[in-house]
């Protein structure tokens, strides 16, 4: 595991965790967290596990959970975590119900004698082809269930439907609220967590919301304290929008909102005046990319890459592609970094 001890780029980077959104003096405080999953079928079980992982990492107990079904067919799951003083309001957006029917058209290729993907029932998995154990698992899951989502999202109609659902989830899931006057009337800190394709969906939804509801976007961006991109795929998925006249800039809507806010009010973050964008990637994950080499740096955003190892490298030759890409949510170093920032990362992994 070459990055069993995570490596930061820039090396001496500092970034906040969700816990830093609570008052340092131990007074009562509240934070909001919006979470978007990535490729592969997800459901209420994923939301529950995500809530439980953050509950343990933050030292808070789950006091309530509420499911909500959006008009689009996508789903929201809400949870409240608390210890009596600190409260974290979590919202998990589940969008793969919108791709399930399309992926079932690939069930003819799914074999029964390997781990099935979640898009096909036992009866639908009908391929009789002979495949080696690992190749069969990768074809069933990584391609037919997971990478298929990226292909579906790149299509005009279904991609638009997923973005519309994401916009609905943002507006419904992120209320514009203020802290109590006793706490200075400051806006409740907001943290974003997204996985692989979910990061692209999140950024696209914010971009499309900007001209429609610029006030909502600015109020939302204005209280963001950090954005955590697990299994970061933005440089690769950015190719969906590539054209001959201009290079797409996926983070520009957020950056521009920050610039506009700075012109009228102070813009404060635990890491300084720029919004921290923390990208987690395993260099052996074929589908993830570090952001610094992609040259996204600008005056409004602070990019930090966290290089991690999700799985053992066997004989210095290979790390399993499936677990390399899907194990970020279970990586204790990644969870510690999101919960407690760069300080928590060092304590948990050294």
Structural write-up:
This protein has 350 residues and is an alpha/beta fold. It has one domain. The protein is 35% helix and 18% strand. The chain has ten helices and nine strands. The chain has a nine-stranded mixed beta sheet, sandwiched between helices. α5 packs across α6 (214-222). It is globular, with a radius of gyration of 20 Å.
Give a quick set of tags describing it.
alpha/beta; 350 residues; nine-stranded mixed beta sheet; 10 helices; 35% helix
Describe the structure concisely for a colleague.
The chain is an alpha/beta fold.
Q: Largest beta sheet, briefly?
A: 9 strands, mixed
Sheet-strand content, in percent, reads: 15-25%
Q: What is the count of DSSP helices, taking H or I runs of 4+ residues?
A: 10
Order of helices and strands: EEHEEEHHHEHHEHHEEHH
- The count of DSSP E runs of length 2 or more, i.e. the number of strands, is 9
Low-confidence stretches: 178-184
Shape: globular
> Can you give the mean pLDDT?
86
Termini separation: 14 Å
| Class from helix and strand fractions | alpha/beta
Strand order of the largest sheet: 1-9-8-7-6-2-5-4-3
